C-alpha cells in the first residue's frame, strides 16, 4: 500500500541591444501572485524562485505529539541532507504537547491554537511530529503520511504549519521515512508542489527511490530535491525565512 504525502487542501525575457549592458538578476525573483488573485493557497504558478545560492537559515519549530525528542532530532538530521545542498540550514526547536485526535486538519488547528493562531515569532514554520496514524477526508489511516496547510505557507504567519507521522507509523521499513515526510511537507510550505521527477543524482544510490523528494509516495522518494523544486524552495527560504 502506498503511503501518500499530501499538499494543502487540494518569465519574462528581456532583449537588449549590443550597446546595452545587462544588469545581473537579483535573487529571488518574483512572479505574479496567483493566490492573491484567486483567494487560494495553492500556488498554481510559482510565486518566487531563487537565482543564486545565497545561504539562509530556516527556523523550524517541532511540536512533539507523542514523538520523542530523540526521534525528532534524528529526523531533522535526515532532513538537513536534503536542504543543505540548497544552502538552507535547518535549526530546530521543540515543544512537547499531546494533541487530541488523529485528523490531520484537527492537529494543525490545535498547533495553531497552541501559538495563538500564528507561528511563533522565533520560527519560520511549525511542524507537528505525531505518533498517530493520521487521516484526512477520503485518505484513511495507513494511506496518509503528512499534510501541509498551504503551498508556500511560509509567506503567511497563520498558514506556515504542517503535520507528519513517525516513519514507523507512515511507512514501516522505509529508510529515513520520518525525515522524508518532514522534509517533504516543509518543502510544500516553501512552495514546492508534487512532482513526478527524478532527483538528478542521489545521496545514497538507492535505486528503489526513483522520485525526487516531492514525489507523492514516501516509499518512492529520495532525500533530495530536483533542480526545479530547489529553485522554488530556495527562493521562498531566501525571501521569507
How would you explain this protein's 3D organization?
α2 links the parallel β4 and β5 (88-96). The relative contact order is 0.20. This protein has helices spanning 34-38, 69-83, 104-114, 167-170, 177-189, 227-240; strands at residues 4-6, 29-30, 48-49, 56-65, 88-96, 125-130, 144-148, 161-165. The chain has a six-stranded mixed beta sheet, with helices on both faces. Strands 2-3 form a two-stranded antiparallel ribbon. The radius of gyration is 18 Å and the shape is globular. It contains six helices and eight strands; from the N terminus they run ββαββαβαβββααα. The protein is α/β, with parallel strands linked by helices. α2 (69-83) crosses α5 (177-189). The longest helix is centred in the first third of the chain and has 15 residues, at 69-83.
Radius of gyration: 18 Å
Strand content: 15-25%
The count of DSSP E runs of length 2 or more, i.e. the number of strands, is 8
Q: In order across it, which strands form the biggest sheet?
A: 1-7-8-6-4-5
Sheet/helix structural class: alpha/beta
Order of helices and strands: EEHEEHEHEEEHHH
Amino acid at each position: 500500500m502506498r503511503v501518500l504525502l499530501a499538499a494543502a487542501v487540494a518569465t519574462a525575457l528581456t532583449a537588449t541591444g549590443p550597446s546595452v549592458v545587462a544588469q545581473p538578476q537579483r535573487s529571488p525573483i518574483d512572479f505574479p501572485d496567483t493566490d492573491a488573485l484567486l483567494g487560494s493557497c495553492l500556488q498554481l504558478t510559482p510565486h518566487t524562485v531563487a537565482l543564486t545560492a545565497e545561504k539562509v537559515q530556516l527556523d523550524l519549530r517541532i511540536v512533539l505529539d507523542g514523538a520523542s525528542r530523540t526521534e525528532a532530532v534524528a529526523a531533522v538530521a535526515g532532513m538537513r541532507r536534503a536542504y543543505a545542498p540548497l544552502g538552507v540550514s535547518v535549526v530546530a526547536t521543540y515543544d512537547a504537547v499531546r494533541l487530541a485526535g488523529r485528523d490531520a486538519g484537527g492537529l494543525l488547528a490545535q498547533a495553531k491554537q497552541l501559538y495563538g493562531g500564528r507561528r511563533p515569532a522565533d520560527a519560520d514554520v511549525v511542524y507537528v511530529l505525531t505518533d498517530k496514524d493520521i487521516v484526512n477526508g477520503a485518505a484513511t489511516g495507513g494511506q496518509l503520511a503528512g499534510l501541509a496547510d498551504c503551498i508556500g505557507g511560509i509567506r503567511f504567519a497563520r498558514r506556515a504549519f504542517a503535520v507528519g507521522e513517525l516513519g514507523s507509523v507512515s511507512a514501516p521499513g522505509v529508510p529515513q521515512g520520518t525525515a522524508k515526510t518532514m522534509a517533504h511537507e516543509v518543502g510544500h510550505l516553501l512552495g514546492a508542489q508534487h512532482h513526478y521527477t527524478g532527483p538528478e543524482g542521489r545521496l545514497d544510490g538507492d535505486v528503489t527511490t526513483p522520485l525526487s523528494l516531492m514525489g507523492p509516495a514516501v516509499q518512492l522518494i529520495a532525500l533530495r530535491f530536483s533542480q526545479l523544486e530547489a529553485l522554488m524552495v530556495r527562493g521562498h527560504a531566501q525571501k521569507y525565512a
